[in-house]
Amino acid sequence: MSLLIKNAKRVLENDEFERVDVLIHGNRIERIGEIQDNADEVIDADGALITSGFIDVHVHLREPGFEAKETIKSGTRAAAHGGYTTICAMPNTNPAPDTVNRMDHVMGIITQDAIVRVLPYAPITEGLKSETLVDFERLKEHGAFAFTNDGVGVQSGRVMYEAMRQARKINAVVVAHAEDEGLKYGGVMHEGNVSCRLGVPGIPSVSESSQVARDLLLAEATGVHYHVCHVSAKETVRVIRDAKRAGIHVTCETTPHNLVLADTDILELNANFKMNPPLRSKEDQAALIEGLLDGTIDQIVTDHAPHTSQEKAKGMLEAPFGIIGMETAFPVLYTKLVKTGVFSLKQLLLWMSETPAKTFGLPRGKMEVGEVADLTLIDLEKKTIIDASRFESKSSNCPFICWEVYGETVMTIVDGKIVWKRG
């Protein structure tokens, strides 16, 4: 089977556009340019941007155990709607995929239900507790993408050190939700003037940055590839920048919500603004933007974390942490940071596709002849209102509802097959 996409445009290094056609044969890109060949299917892109499919190395699909929030089927539909062709699923499910049998079960659901590529994480420790290490080697053999206890930080330095030693032996990545529980103080948002004004306990930045600092020295001692989840604090950016200069093998990520929102945007106790790590200060937000621009921060992820409306209705103090993000990430970032001149479009596309692939050694992330045809088409001129009724996710816990944005997904192609299209 062959698929010919006509009249698309791709972005060049200087952020100018070039009109192109793309011919896909089987699951590979066969030609890019001006193409007159016949194909089994021809699609007129009508000037839409065509780019390599987005890659999100930090999502929560909730299955097994929390199917009321999300499933692998609904979560991958949400991913496709957002232009993502590869996503990496966190292991804080019930049960966690901390044994070979449990990992095989998750892989079976992915094979049956996923419409985009899903790479599952395995936990660092059994049951996501900071106690007993999992069998790193066997879990990697059975499909573990990398190892993380996302949702909770590994509290024991000894356990993290031993985990890094095990991961280094099998060339696996340790991915850390960095948070010292003893420094959290029961907080529900960033500790600062806003938390004081709203009368709720705050989470100090040092709860994140201090554990990252610990882990960076452990990573240096073991030689492991250490990746920091959802960086939110300016102090964390600083210690990672210093570690990279020192030659420590560290990479990291941040999120759309931490790039476009700050704690000052929380005007009332709305649980759709409750996430962990929290929205921090304007100074932290500026440090994240600077970190992306100078290469300290490697990529942008969504930390897509669905919860039911009933759970979020419990309010800021009692509701669970987390918001969804795969269906809003590109339009929010494009509207707020590209159209305003903070980032170039080329930079944003790299942080959402090619750089995540490079970071984790994935054979994806490039729109070139011979590469797998994982592609996203986006209408950059289309103005839309973010509307929860249009989400493919089972959940709607999102702070961007009713925002006016540009950059609507037109089509998502995985392995040469159309898996989502507008309308």
Q: What count of helical segments does DSSP give? A: 12
Shape: globular
List low-pLDDT spans: none
Please give the radius of gyration in angstroms: 21 Å
- CATH second-level architecture: Alpha-Beta Barrel
Multimerization state:
single chain
- Termini separation (Å)? 23 Å
Number of domains: 1
CATH topology: TIM Barrel
Helix coverage percent? 25-40%
**Number of strand segments:** 18
CATH class: Alpha Beta
- Portion in strands: 15-25%
Q: Given the helix and strand composition, which structural class is it?
A: alpha/beta
Q: Can you describe this structure in just a few lines?
A:
By secondary structure, this protein is α/β, with parallel strands linked by helices.
Describe this structure in words.
With 423 residues, the chain is of the alpha/beta class. The chain has a single domain, classed as Alpha-Beta Barrel (TIM Barrel), CATH 3.20.20. It is built from twelve helices and 18 strands. Helix 6 packs parallel to helix 7. The radius of gyration is 21 Å and the shape is globular. The model has no long low-confidence stretch (mean pLDDT 97).
